[in-house]
């Protein structure tokens, strides 16, 4: 995978084949601004919570779309100390920095973050979205690569400088037809949910990924450019036990081994 310097025609254009220096520079400034805002907040930890409200879909209704579904999971999260007030404040600041940037990266690649699970995220990438339009599978994998680069080169140095052990995380992606629905109670708590085998598989795939690994389903791999499939995917050595319903053939899981490389002129 290459990381090249290309001047975009418009700032909102994303290159799915590489990581542009112009985008990386903007991302670096974004992370630094976020770090400074977090440091300045004295009221970051407060009792209670605010649940965001959304009304794009009526309660109980849904849309059926072809999309890639991504799960992000922080490894060994529950083993981190978070008992004292100081530990909780430190954890809150680190999570704020990490997840704020992961969400922004997902949105840059025209992904929709469906929920935050506390130690992870779920996002989906519908086909033919983005600028320029591209398949959900390719955008999701390119997004995962940018998330890995952001963690290593932008977020980790800030956390280390603050005396906080950086997060290790893993990513899984599957592709298929999913129904996005709005469930809940009118004028009360409600949220979007992804319904379908694809979303279930994507969540279960995480158990087959180690720290800093990207695992993808066979359906994702089929939608990637041929050079990505040839050079950067390896069949997962552990059988998943998943099979196609009609043929009973195994549904293969792959490790995506490509990464954006260092900046080159």
Q: What would you report as the Rg, rounded to the nearest angstrom?
A: 19 Å
Could you state the order of secondary-structure elements as H and E?
Answer: HEHEEHEEHEHHEE
Number of strands: 8
CATH topology: Alpha-Beta Plaits
Gap from first CA to last CA: 15 Å
Largest sheet: 8 strands, mixed
Shape: globular
Instruction: Give the overall pLDDT as a whole number.
Output: 82
Please provide a written account of the structure.
By secondary structure, this protein is α+β, with helices and mostly antiparallel strands. The chain has one domain: Nucleotide cyclase, GGDEF domain (Alpha-Beta Plaits). Helices cover 34% and strands 22% of the residues. The chain contains 6 helices and 8 strands. Strands 1, 2, 3, 4, 5, 6, 7 and 8 form an 8-stranded mixed sheet that branches. Strand 2 and strand 3 form a beta hairpin. Helix 1 packs antiparallel against helix 2. The longest helix has 26 residues. The protein is globular.
Features:
Alpha-Beta Plaits; globular; 8-stranded mixed β-sheet; 6 helices; 8 strands; alpha+beta; 265 residues
Walk me through the topology.
Elements: H1 21-40, E1 62-74, H2 85-108, E2 112-116, E3 120-126, H3 136-161, E4 169-184, E5 190-195, H4 197-205, E6 214-217, H5 218-222, H6 226-232, E7 233-235, E8 253-256
Parallel strand pairs: 4-6
Antiparallel strand pairs: 1-3, 1-4, 2-3, 4-5, 6-8, 7-8
Helix pairs in contact: 1-2, 1-3, 2-3
